[in-house]
Structures are given as C-alpha cells and as structure tokens.
Design a protein that fits this description.
By secondary structure, this protein is mostly helical. Among the domains are: 49 residues; 49 residues. 77% of the residues lie in helices and 0% in strands. The chain contains 9 helices and no strands. Helix 1 packs across helix 2 and helix 4 packs parallel to helix 6. The termini are far apart. About 4% of the residues have low confidence.
C-alpha cells in the first residue's frame, strides 16, 4: 500500500514537471536554497550577490566617468559660446577653495616639521632639514625608539630599601644588614617623632 502511494506521488511529480517546467524549476531553486542553508525563499545565492555587486560597481564607475565627461563638455561648450566670464568665475571660486585648503594643510605640515626638527640637535637639524616630512617623522621615531634607555628595576641604592616600618623589623635584621643600613635605621627613628 505504501509503495503504491509513493509511486503515485512520483508519477504526479513527473506529470507536474512535464506540464509546467517553470514551476518545477522554481521548486528546484527553492530546494537548492534550502539545501544550502538559506531559510527564506527570498534569499539570494552568494554567486548572484557577487555578480550584482560587480555590476553595480561598474555602473557607478561609468556614471562617474559620464559626469566628468559632461562637466568637461559643458566647459568646452561655454568656451565655444564665449561665456568665458561665467567659466572664469566658477574656476576662480574653485581655485579659492583649494588655495585655502592648501594653505591650511601647508601650515599644519610646517608646524609638524618644526616640532620634529626641534627634537634634533642643531647639527642634525642642518643635516635633516631637506628630508621630506614623512621620512623625517619616520627617522625621528626610529631614533627615539633606539635611544630609549632601559630602566633599572633593581632596588634603590640609597634610601630605605629595606622598608623598615616597625621597630621590630630592625631587630629582626642580622647584624651585617643593620650595619650596612644604619642610616636608614636612624632615619626611621627620626621620622618616628
């Protein structure tokens, strides 16, 4: 009985495929997305997604080229129509903005350069003054890392290196330690007052 039901289902699916291949294709796509781990039938396969992203990027690039071309064509047309005055004012305004930005960033770079050169001796300043700012920055960073002195983590040579806190600490020391740190012992009693 079960075999008959299975055969009927198989036969009905074959008939459906023959009658409407498009719906079967849609079912196959839905089954593929389910097999790949996509839960919704609206999800897009990754390969298709990449294809759309590439196509979108190409279209954006093309749009940028066309807008630049249109601007160039507009300028050329204005020149041809003797609208030099409008073109001149537009270009002058654009030039003014760029000049202001250039001055601002030039000042910033000069301040940074002066600060970097101030870290060097006068002799080195003469040597490295012609170096571009980026290379000067790198050079000074390398020099400062090489000149860094490793600090000594050992105990202090002078002072209360035995850390005497109570009178009993003094009497717990052996006689040699007491003799070598007698100044610390005396300071302990002076500070006690």
């Amino acid at each position: 009985m079960e075999n008959e039901i299975k055969m009927e289902k198989n036969e009905s699916s074959v008939v459906e495929q023959n009658n409407d291949t498009q719906s079967a294709d849609k079912q196959n796509v839905a089954n593929q997305t389910a097999v790949e781990g996509n839960d919704s039938p609206n999800s897009v396969p990754y390969a298709r997604f990449n294809e759309i992203v590439k196509q979108n990027k190409k279209l954006n690039d093309k749009l940028d080229k066309l807008s630049k071309q249109q601007e160039a064509d507009r300028m050329k047309e204005m020149e041809e129509q003797n609208k030099f005055q409008e073109l001149y004012t537009e270009l002058k305004a654009q030039n003014q903005k760029l000049t202001e930005k250039n001055e601002y960033y030039g000042k910033l770079e000069q301040e940074e350069r002066d600060g970097l050169l101030a870290q060097l001796s006068e002799e080195e300043q003469e040597i490295y003054s012609d170096l571009p700012t980026t290379k000067l920055r790198t050079h000074i960073a390398n020099m400062s890392s090489k000149n860094a002195v490793a600090s000594d983590k050992s105990a202090a040579i002078r002072g209360n290196n035995l850390k005497i806190k109570h009178d009993s600490d003094i009497w717990k020391m052996n006689s040699q330690d007491r003799k070598s740190s007698w100044g610390d012992v005396l300071n302990h009693f002076k500070n006690k007052k």
